[in-house]
Amino acid sequence: MVGNIYRKWTCITMTFSENIANLRKKAGLSQQALASKAEVSLAQLKHSESGKSQPTLEVIARLAVSLDSSADDIVFDINDRLPANQRLRTQFGAIAKLKISEQEVIASLLDAYIKKNQMEELLKK
To answer: Of 24, 42, 45, 124, which shows the fewest CB atoms inside 10 Å?
Structure first.
């Protein structure tokens, strides 16, 4: 059990450090530029990108805002956030390729369906 927890933590740490570096590079920022933008020390950012240390939640939030991203994008691997159902994964992948306006329509439909089911569950109680 402890071995599984350690492997999971190691996996998150590697994903985390890789995600910060990848998002920074995608944004076209140097380490110095991101550190300044997020108001963290360059040393702290370097340690986070190398996996030597984990920043606080406050720093993760500042990095996410500075990278125009989310904390989930920084902390988790994309596969940790996708549904286990392969059909849904495929559908969400296809939706991601649609125009933003079409994605908004689909998101509204999903919201309505989810709320409908939540109301049905409340009425059963």
So the answer is: 124
